[in-house]
Structures are given as C-alpha cells and as structure tokens.
C-alpha cells in the first residue's frame, strides 16, 4: 500500500467504528405507547399468577451443535484476520516514480 493511498484509511476506519457503535442503540428503539395503534392499551397488563419453578432434566453430554457454532466463529475470525492482514500489509517492491 503506497503512501499516496493511505489518507483514506483514517476516515474510512472512523466511519466504520461510528456505524458499529451506533447500530446497537438503534436496534433497541421502541415506539412510545401513545404512538401505538392500540393507543397505549398494550402497556396495561392484567395481574399474572405467581410463576412456577421450572424443572429441567440434567444433561451432562457434550453439545456438538454448540461446538460447531464456536468452531465456525473461530474460523470466521481467523479468515477475517488473514484477509485484513493481506489488505493492509506493505508491498516489498517500491512504488514507481511519479511522472514529471
């Protein structure tokens, strides 16, 4: 990557970080009750009975589906890191001279 093409990296990185930090806040947005078509009736709930404790059978076996998800995530991270490294690393040959 030549020195002439680096100035775009800082604004691009800043834009990606800003979009990444702004996305979770918008994902949690909920309309105000008066904006609902129900006129806010959905916020009033009837009294619920006391919750009953749930019992589950204990399963001590190995969960292959969870292991597959974790391995897939690790592969994605490794490939992403390799791709970023390939894009960012410096070339070994010098840039050609600029025309006069």
How is this fold's topology laid out?
Blueprint: H1 9-27, H2 64-88
Summarize the structure.
By secondary structure, this protein is mainly α. The chain contains two helices and no strands.
Mean pLDDT across all amino acids: 75
Assign the structural class, choosing from mainly alpha, mainly beta, alpha/beta, alpha+beta, or little secondary structure: mainly alpha
DSSP strand tally = 0
Q: How many H/I helical runs?
A: 2
Q: Mind describing the biggest β-sheet?
A: none
Strand share of the residues?
Answer: under 5%
Helix content: 40-55%
Separation of the first and last Cα atoms: 22 Å
| 3D shape | flat
Unreliable stretches covering 5 or more consecutive residues: none
Order of helices and strands: HH
Radius of gyration computed on alpha carbons: 26 Å
Describe this structure as you would to a colleague.
This protein has helices at residues 9-27, 64-88. The protein is an all-alpha fold and 100 residues long. The chain has a domain at 65-89. The chain starts with 8 loop residues before the first helix and ends in a 12-residue tail after the last helix. The relative contact order is 0.09.
């Amino acid at each position: 990557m030549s020195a002439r093409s680096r100035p775009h990296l800082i604004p691009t990185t800043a834009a990606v970080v800003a979009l990444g930090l702004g996305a979770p806040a918008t994902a949690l947005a909920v309309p105000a009750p008066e904006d609902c078509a129900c006129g806010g009736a959905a916020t009033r709930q009837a009294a619920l009975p006391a919750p009953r404790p749930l019992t589950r059978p204990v399963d001590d076996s190995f969960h292959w589906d969870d292991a597959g998800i974790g391995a897939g995530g690790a592969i994605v991270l490794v490939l992403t890191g390799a791709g970023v490294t390939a894009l960012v690393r410096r070339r070994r040959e010098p840039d050609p001279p600029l025309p006069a």
